[in-house]
Amino acid sequence: MVKSIGPKKIRTAVFISGTGSNLKNLIKFSLKKVSPIEINLIVSNNLKAKGLKFAKMYKIKKKVYNYDKKKDSEKKILKDLKSNDIKLICLAGFMKILSKDFIRRFKGKILNIHPSLLPKYKGLNTHHRAIQNKEKYSGCTVHLVNSKLDSGKIILQKKVKLSKKETPSSLQKKILKHEYILYPRAISKILVNL
Ligand code: GRF
C-alpha cells in the first residue's frame, strides 16, 4: 500500500494509449484540495494518443516511448519515473502489458481501470462480449495490477444495468460515466492517511 504522508500529495503518473478521458478526469480530480494525488507525468506508447493534448492543456510533463523493444522502453520509463519521483501509477486505457519485472518494482502501486465486472470479461471487447452473452449487468472495476492480465486485487467496482437495446458503443458511454466516479474513489481508498 502507498501511504500519503501529511498534506503532501502523492506524485503520480498516468499511462494512456488513446482518448484519455479518464486521464482528463483524474487531472481534474488531482487539482481538488481533497485529492491525495498530484499528476506529474503522462506516459504513452502512442505518439498519436488524443489524450496527450491534456499534457499541454494542464501543463503536465509528457513522455512518449516507441515500444518497439519493450524491455528498452520499460527501462526508459522506469528511469523517468524515478527522476520524477513518481510513487503511484494509474493506467487509464494503456494498451501495453507491463512486464513482471516492471510490476515488481512498483508492487502495490499500479492501478488500472477496466470496463467490466472483473473477473468477468478480462481483456478486450468487453462490451461486445457482455451484450452477446445477454448479461443483465456489466460495469467497471479498479484493481491493483499484478503479473496476470486484469487479475490483481479489486479495489472498487460499480455495477451498471444493460438496457434491452444496448450496443457496445452505448454501453461504453454509460460505463465511462461511472469510471469517472470510481477511479478517484478507488485512489482515495488506497491512499488512506495512517
Ligand atoms: C476505458 O474504458 C477504460 O476502462 C479502459 O480503456 C478505456 C479508456 O478510455 N481501460 P479513455 O482513454 O480514458 O477515454
Give start-end ranges of low-pLDDT stretches: none
**Do you know the CATH topology of the largest domain?**
Rossmann fold
> Could you say which small molecules are bound to this protein?
5-O-phosphono-beta-D-ribofuranosylamine
Helix/strand-derived class? Answer: alpha/beta
Strand order of the largest sheet: 3-2-1-4-5-6-7
The CATH superfamily of the largest domain is identified as Formyl transferase, N-terminal domain
Radius of gyration: 16 Å
Q: How would you sum up the global shape?
A: globular
Oligomer: single chain
Structural commentary:
- The protein is an alpha/beta fold and 194 residues long.
- The protein has two domains: 98 residues, 3-Layer(aba) Sandwich (Rossmann fold); 81 residues, Rossmann fold.
- Helix content is 34%, strand content 23%.
- The chain is built from six helices and seven strands, in the order βαβαβαβαβαββα.
- A seven-stranded mixed sheet has the order 3-2-1-4-5-6-7, covered by helices on one side.
- Helix 4 links the parallel strand 4 and strand 5.
- Helix 1 runs parallel beside helix 6 and helix 5 packs across helix 6.
- The longest helix is centred in the C-terminal third of the chain and has 23 residues.
- It is globular and about 50 Å long.
- The structure holds 5-O-phosphono-beta-D-ribofuranosylamine.
- 5-O-phosphono-beta-D-ribofuranosylamine binds next to helix 1, strand 5 and helix 6.
Highlighted features:
194 residues, Rossmann fold, 7-stranded mixed beta sheet, alpha/beta, 23% strand, binds 5-O-phosphono-beta-D-ribofuranosylamine
